[in-house]
Specification:
By secondary structure, this protein is of the alpha+beta class. The chain folds into two domains: about 160 residues, YacF-like; about 70 residues, YacF-like domains (YacF-like), CATH 2.60.440.10. About 50% of the residues lie in helices and about 20% in strands. The chain has a four-stranded antiparallel beta sheet with strand order 1-4-8-2. Strands 3, 5, 6 and 7 form a four-stranded antiparallel beta sheet that branches. β5 and β6 form a beta hairpin.
Length: about 250
């Protein structure tokens, strides 16, 4: 099964992009080749760009507080395991404290590193990080892999409070949904959304052996999904009946 996710607002869209970048970073850092660490640095710069939104940190803190208040309202409910509730609230408190202690915007400490910023200014220029443009960076790439890895881990450590908060909030959001199998006659599916509930994320799982790609659009009142099939290098709407798993998360 292939999982596709679709955000209903800009805040969740930003969080998903950052999660994607942190996942990529986690795969690149353990490797030893200089080219992998080059792309790890590029990913760090991408995270800084995405996280530069002035209200991102405050949005995350507000969301963590909202989830904590909601979970605390479940106390005393006989259907809720108190020890599990306490564990989740403790994780929220830890993520909240980490974000509070983060000075300024995410990546602000890295922006003060002149050597990193010299690389950042040239990394998007085609061939801009050649040895004659950035000799010190070239020398760093030629150094031991363990030293490069340790440097990158040190720089990434300044971003980890952001990564932890994102991971927790997205986990809580995804857990709020209830998956259901739905049918898409002729490759199309539409669903009206209740006006009294605000959904933030759509999750769709589809059997990869079907060879279908979902084209998703939606807003607070309606979700529309068209199942597409590759035809000579272009995606075209399938006419086949199909089904997939749909989860709406609030």
């Amino acid at each position: 099964m292939i999982l596709y996710e679709y955000p209903f607002n800009e805040s969740i869209r930003t969080m998903l992009r950052l999660e994607h970048l942190f996942d990529r970073l986690g795969q690149l850092i353990p490797r030893s080749d200089a080219i992998d660490h080059h792309f790890a640095l590029g990913t760090i710069f991408e995270i800084m760009d995405v996280a530069s939104r002035a209200d991102l940190k405050s949005d995350l803190l507000k969301d963590l507080e909202r989830h904590k208040a909601q979970l605390n309202s479940y106390r005393g409910n006989p259907a809720i395991a108190e020890e599990v509730l306490d564990e989740v609230i403790a994780r929220i408190d830890h993520a909240f404290d980490g974000l509070i202690k983060l000075p300024g915007k995410a990546g602000q400490q890295l922006a003060a590193n002149e050597w990193l910023m010299s690389i950042r200014s040239r990394i998007n220029i085609p061939g801009g990080t050649c040895e004659f443009d950035l000799p010190s960076y070239y020398a760093w790439q030629k150094g031991p892999a363990d030293r490069r890895r340790a440097d990158i881990q040190g720089w990434v450590a300044t971003l980890m409070p952001l990564a932890e908060g994102l991971k927790l909030l997205l986990s809580l959001l995804r857990d709020s949904g209830h998956p259901q199998m739905v049918a898409a006659p002729g490759g199309q599916y539409q669903q009206s959304l209740p006006q009294n509930r605000s959904y933030q994320l759509l999750r769709l799982r589809i059997d990869e052996t079907l060879g279908l790609v979902p084209e998703i659009s939606g807003h607070r009142l309606m979700v529309s999904i068209r199942l597409m099939r590759d035809a000579e290098g272009r995606l075209k709407l399938t006419t086949e009946d199909a089904s997939f798993e749909l989860t709406l998360c609030a």
